[in-house]
Design a protein that fits this description.
The structure holds four protein chains of four kinds. Chain A is α+β, with helices and mostly antiparallel strands. Chain A is built from three helices and ten strands. The two termini of chain A are about 10 Å apart. Chain B has a single domain, classed as Four Helix Bundle (Hemerythrin (Met), subunit A). The mean pLDDT of chain B is about 95. The two termini of chain C are about 35 Å apart. In chain C, helix 4 packs antiparallel against helix 5, helix 4 runs antiparallel to helix 7 and helix 7 packs parallel to helix 9. Chain C is mostly helical. The chains are: A alpha+beta, B mainly alpha, C mainly alpha, D mainly alpha. Chains B and D meet through helix 1, helix 3 and helix 7 of B and helix 1, helix 2 and helix 3 of D.
Chain lengths: ~260, ~200, ~600, ~100
Amino acid sequence: MDEKIYGWWLPPDVSVHGAKIDQLMSVLHWFMALLFIGWGIFFVYCLFRFRARPGHAALYTPVKALATKYIEGFVLVVEVFLLFGLSTPVWLAYKNDVPDPSKALHVRLVAEQFAWNFQYPGKDGKFGKTDASQIGGDNPLGLDPEDPAGKDDLVTVNNLHIPVHRPVIVDISSKDVIHSFNVPVLRVKQDTIPGQQIPVWFEATQPGHFELACAQLCGLGHYRMRGDVLIETPEEFAKWEAENAPPPQEAPAAAAPEEKK
Amino acid sequence: MSETVIPYMVKPHPVTGIPNGKFGIWLFLASEVMLFGALFSSYVLIRTGMPHWPPEGGLSSEVLNVPLATLNTAVLITSSITMVLAWASCKMGNLPRFRLWMGATIALAFVFLVVKYFEYSHKFHLGHTPAHDNFYAVYFTMTGLHGLHIVGGIIVNGYLLGPGTKLWAKDPEHFTNRVENAGLYWHFVDLVWIFLFPSLYLL
Amino acid sequence: MSVKQHTAATGNGHGHGNQDHGHHELPFWRKYIFSVDHKVIGIQYAVTALVFLFFGFSLMMMMRWQLAYPGQPLPLIGNLLGETAMPGGVMAPEFYNQLGAMHGTIMVFMGVVPLAVGGFGNFVVPLQIGAPDMAFPRLNMASYWVFLPGCIAMVASFFLPGGAAQSGWTSYPPLADIAPTGQTMWLFAMVLIITSSLLGSINFIVTIVQMRAKGLSFWRLPFFVHAQLVTAFLLLLAFPPLEAASVMQIMDRVAGTSFFLPTGLVVSGEPLKVAGGGNPLLWQHLFWFLAHPEVYVLILPAMGIVAEVIANNTRKPLWGYRLLVYSVVSLGFMSFVVWAHHMFMTGMGTTMSTFFQITTMIISIPSVVILTCFIMSLYGGNIRFTTPMLFATAFLPMFAIGGLTGLPLGLTASDIYLHDTFYVIGHFHYVVAPGTLFALFAGVYYWYPKATGRQLNEKLGKVHFWLSFVAINFVFMPMFFQGMAGLSRRLYDPTVYAHGRGVQALNVLISWGAWGLGLAQLFFIVNFFLSLKKGARVAENPWNATTLEWAAPSPPGHGNFITEPVVYREPYEYSVPGKSNDYSPQFRAEG
Amino acid sequence: MDAAQHEDVSKHMGQYYVVFVALLCLTAVTVGVSYLHLARPAAIAVALVIATVKAGLVAAVFMHLISERKVIYAVLIITAVFFAVLLLLPNLTTFEHHSGLPGT
């Protein structure tokens, strides 16, 4: 992982939808800076110009300040623009534009204290059934060994392998408490709510090794609930999938936990 | 040390038209509306999130004891009218009659609690504790909190019937105001039950 | 000090009973401990709150060591706190989470609100409206004596097995449902504190509506009283849902119900033995139904104080007084319908999130109006830079930063990135710490002479201000950069992450800023106690102010006013043309 | 107590008894209807309408809301608005959450 890409501002964006979020962020911060500086100059001017000193007296009649109305109007217009012009379209796309499921990679994520369990459907494209009663040390997801759809499923812990330039849908849930799936470079965040399965989707634009963080306090190990996001070329991804696919005769519970730690 | 005289303790404020106590009790009831409102809202949210209600099948009216609850509804409604009559007796200057009606109100409140006790103990006997499922969780939490309000009402009304009556000799109007305020609270407790009864037992 | 009730014939006026002043002295415990005097109760609240503010801040100063120097033993106190909390002098993650949860809880519920509402509200409101006391003095006393046991229970929970609450001040279930016993204590303590607030808010509303002095119409009320009235309504109507939620969480923890626990939970590899069927988001709705209005409970009284201090020190009427009142009322109303912007990342649908996004943008407009009014109040003034004024002026840019940085968090798209990062911490601390707390300090410096009859030392006050002002910006400004870098909040060790290591240098800076800020407070503490004995004595009206509290003696006796005050004019009649003085008090017929 | 008040109260006595009887009757009706096993929406509507009428009677007559002061109406209207918010928004949000997303 390249440490140098992380500085004091937004980390690089490697997602398709992230550019619009970054654009909103920069418009917002320019707007905030403009307001604050403009207003700060006037503020400091007032403090200096109207300081108490001999021979100076306060003005009883309130000044007619039409300018304030204009400024408030300007703020209102900008906010409406930010709201309907920039924020809402991005949000609606983020929530509603589901990628074509036939082209997308589908992954299930089940968070737990304090790890991220990913389940890939394997060649058949179907997730094996899971059942809480099957959960055990070597079967963190509770995969049902009887279900044929689960035989070729691939399970990883704390490692999300995804191909570049292909939409990924992650169905997010949790076993125990609320966590939050947060990949800063992908501009993606979604709380994992136990008892619910919530999908998010994204498409990476460049390969690389990045971080997955937990954003919601989930207990004493919250800080170390870190995962790796490995964005790979389609070839690399296919190779990884093939190498790690469970051997056909074995139960999926033995699916290789990741070697890269 | 001086005695601080608080204005409008007894007489109504010329603009608002009410004394402090009455305003205070209404504000308190407003907060109670939000308290029970939150519970009702939670009830709806949890119930609509479940495939069956009660979760183990059947109907609420079969799982809970409707005849006893109907009896309790009648008991609370009756205690509301006795409360009104107690206040009206004060208003008409008849302290003995106040004692009679207030006594009846408190007695009815005890009847309510006794019936509730039988309901609860039957449920516990069957192993239907709050932990059994969310149906019983909602049932016990809401009726339990309402029951606590009944207990609170008994304490307030008991005070007015017992040591509180001394105020009658000094300042009957002030005493009547207190009875009125206690009554407002008591009717509110009745009112909550009027909603609890159908939503928990009948629907 | 019995509270004598009005009897029939005399009931219609304001009777301020100072007639038999000094007849008999009350025993100490009735006068200073179980007192029904609003001023004593106000001071009790204020002192308790200040103690807890410093305590809560100390918890954070300990956490700042772990954040700046992760894994290194804490110097000096590391070995004092026992092996469970500090194995080998190094803070344990559980203990870090306890400190975090308690810092938030203490600062909000036991520090800022009791100081702003319980302290200043109790002490100042009856004086400013010309009332002899609160409408229900005994209820007022009860309110404090419910509050204090709640606070003690909260702090005592550190000594329970498993320690204090450690699921954040927000106490989200299921984490809070399965947390150690400290969480149950937290819930019980919250129920007590909530009850105390409810009693207090009823008292405030009745007092303000019923007990204003003759001539004091609503449009003549000081802005501080308007702010307190709106605040009281927020407390009255927003707190009960949290009380209900607390009861449900207590049931979950004690009686084994599943209000917040869905079916099929597996904790540490073992299925949780509960019925299930609940919804963890229910807690979040009820919690934020309180906690968003709570933000305005924190900020509105602060704005009230700032308005008083600015009007007094610019020596001119507040600019847009009515506009300010309308803004405060609309803030109060709107604050009830924005709460779910705290929940954008919980998987809300787009209709409701858009609704909450719109309401959130709407609520920013009255805030902008209020800020504009305050700045325009400076324009044309004759500004005295007294210590309270320094704190009040500093409030404006600090609140502006806090408010502006709320924008990216209120917009759903940018919230995707910034939600639950340090950006959020920076944002709300700018509102509450250099915002509200500075305003509260302004209030302490402004009303201390009224409460004690002596002035706080101006030199020490100015040192306190400048050191605090510089230090506090070192604490909170870097957090925006950490947030932009994507660093999650509530991390015991941020250097686990590469993007955390990128901003670790800022953590060191913040920590030293925080410790500097801690040192700066020593000037305040010394000043506070020193001035009790050595401060310059003052008469009724040391600041040449116009509102009613300055008509009473300093400190006011029981029953407050020597003669019943009558109000003749608007609250901020400063520098009226043609008058010999630059202030025309409300209470003087001839200005 | 002056005579006017006296009269005022006794004038209302009849009203109190009428309301009392009405409340008992409505209780009987709501229990009776529950035995008809109406369709869910109808059952909810009937039960809530009857409960609201009963609550209205208690509030209007026993709690004298029918002729109360403006300041109390104001407090209650504010409360009613926020009560509605409290009841509606969490449930609407949850409802949309459960129904509006693919894959849930």
